[in-house]
Amino acid sequence: MIKFKWDPAKEALNFQSHGIHFETATNIFKDPFRMERHDDDSSDDEDRWQTMGFYNDVLFVAYTEREEYTWIISARLAEPFERRIYHEQGRGRSDLRGWERVNS
Is 56 left (phi over 0), alpha (psi -120 to 50) or beta? Predict the structure, then answer.
């Protein structure tokens, strides 16, 4: 079972900007078609990941692993090009930009 944590102040700012609560974002980790890629550009201090999954819509979530927790950094609706990647992956796409299905 995945245990989640986040900074409440960061979540409040995220909700103001993107309209997504981090608690809601955790639901995409249950999506059997979830996609993920390593985020090479965001931090020199820790490994960060980007994941996309479906929960009422395609959501894009940035996170890291800290101790035994999955630490949510940000969450938003996926951009149109990200939605295409999520929905069309495995249908001959060659421009996946590093995205892979987690459960494949």
Answer: left
